[in-house]
TrEMBL record:
One of its GO terms (cellular component) is nucleus. Its cofactor is thiamine diphosphate. Keywords: Magnesium, Metal-binding. Residues 95-282 form the Transketolase-like pyrimidine-binding domain. GO terms for biological process: pentose-phosphate shunt. This is Transketolase-like pyrimidine-binding domain-containing protein. It comes from the Eukaryota. Pfam families: Transket_pyr (PF02779), Transketolase_C_1 (PF22613). The keyword Cytoplasm does not apply. Transmembrane segments: none annotated. It comes from Metarhizium rileyi (strain RCEF 4871). One of its GO terms (molecular function) is transketolase activity.
Length: 430
């Protein structure tokens, strides 16, 4: 059909070609598509009527389980999952946030209608801590069936995210009593953070359509180390943080990971959980509830000379740097900011209580691009270049992003600005 050819694309040069088709028709749909869609609609109505009659009869004669079934169909979640997370006790000692997230997810598989998997990285993403029934044609050993909820997507990041969008869109329901929207299925899609760039168009569509998809991105900074800059997403945080309707969360430890999962399940839109690769300690001041405001004080000091604000796996380096600064008689306070979008949604009073604009310096610390931090900080320590290929334990030293170098850079900055009002000075990377 000529009207479907590329020369009919609506550009100024093709206006003449468009007029050669059917100028009175605003939108052209091939007859075969129209016929098929009308048939599908009629068939759906034919199937739905007897189904609703069956459900009504079942409710009147059988066990009173229809309300529970309908609540699930409408995506109205029970409170079990929340109680699980509020009572969850994180493992003490040094653990990577991806491992902590995996332990949390292991619990949530039991209490939430999760469906999804990983793009060939189930182990590194820690989304299959305890073996789950895999979705697919039944096999002889019973490990795979159509009742399974875990999917091995293979190295198909875009396909995985697009499929997750489809599941979220299809399963969105409105509760017939409350009128609330919910999802009968909550899709998860996991891969390395860097490889989420392959899925970016699909992630953008989930944000555009406000579809609840939980994207898990592990190995989310230069601390990935030996795999080199091809696996170190120094710039992607700016894409995700600037994307409307998308929550990008970088929890700094196991305690914040719990709060991040609560945020992701509560949010009726897409979430990216940025999880680090290497072990980090459980910080004393982190809080699964407070972190849901996006940013909060984890070490307070009303007479502090400087505020250090950090996120993700860099928080523990920042805490250690603060100890060195205190030895130099530089008093500090520390803010963790796992989610910029959620923080900027807070009221002015709360924001100013966390990051006061009183002339004292606020310095951000993140092993990624410094772009975007000028809104909150007077200066930033970060990485405005690609990473490099060194062992994970050596990469922070290589880029001078470990505790001793953070303390040195802060000290030099404070010496340079002296008693000046830091808020009135131009922001800069230091």
């Amino acid at each position: 059909m000529d009207e479907l050819k590329a020369y009919c694309h609506p550009t100024a040069n093709n206006f003449t070609n468009i007029c050669k088709t059917h100028p009175e028709i605003k939108h052209i749909t091939p007859p075969s598509v129209t016929t098929t869609s009308r048939f599908a609609k009629s068939l759906g109505a034919m199937i739905l009527l007897p189904l609703m009659w069956f459900l009504k009869m079942y409710d009147s004669t059988g066990p009173k389980s229809l309300p529970k079934f309908m609540a699930h169909e409408c995506g109205q979640l029970s409170g079990e999952w929340r109680q699980q997370l509020l009572s969850f006790r994180p493992q003490q000692g040094m653990n990577s946030v991806r491992q902590s997230s995996g332990a949390i997810l292991d619990q949530l598989w039991q209490s939430l209608p999760l469906f999804g998997g990983s793009a060939d990285l189930s182990g590194p993403n820690v989304v299959l801590k305890t073996p789950k029934a895999v979705f697919g044609p039944p096999d002889d050993d019973g490990k795979q069936s159509y009742e399974g909820r875990y999917v091995h997507f293979g190295t198909r990041e875009h396909g995985m995210a697009a499929i997750a969008n489809g599941m979220a869109a299809y399963s969105t329901r409105k509760d017939h009593k409350s009128g609330k929207l919910g999802q009968a299925i909550i899709p998860i899609a996991a891969t390395f953070s860097m490889f989420q760039l392959y899925a970016a168009p699909a992630i953008r569509m989930s944000a555009l359509m406000k579809l609840q998809v939980i994207h898990i991105g592990t190995h989310d900074s230069i601390a990935e180390g030996a795999c080199g800059p091809t696996h170190q997403p120094v710039e992607l945080v700016n894409l995700w943080r600037s994307m409307p309707n998308l929550l990008h969360i970088r929890p700094c430890d196991a305690e914040e990971a719990i709060g991040a999962w609560i945020m992701a399940v509560d949010y009726k839109g897409p979430t990216i959980l940025g999880l680090n690769r290497g072990p980090v300690p459980l910080q004393g001041g982190t809080d699964r509830t407070k972190m849901q405001k996006g940013g909060y004080v984890i070490e307070e000091n009303e007479s502090a000379m400087v505020t250090l604000v950090s996120t993700g796996s860099e928080v523990y380096q920042t805490v250690d740097a603060a100890k060195i600064l205190r030895e130099r008689a530089i008093s500090t306070r520390i803010v963790s900011m796992p989610c910029m979008r959620r923080f900027e949604e807070q009221g002015k009073e709360y924001i100013s209580s966390v990051l006061p604009r009183d002339g004292r310096p606020v310095i951000s610390v993140e092993a990624m691009s410094t772009h975007g931090w000028a809104r909150w900080a007077t200066a930033s320590i970060g990485l405005d270049s690609f990473g490099t290929t060194v062992h994970a334990d050596a990469v922070a030293e290589h880029f001078q992003l470990n505790a001793k170098h953070i303390a040195r850079r802060v000290t030099e900055y404070l010496r340079e600005i002296g008693d000046a009002n830091a808020v009135l000075l131009p922001w800069r990377a230091i």
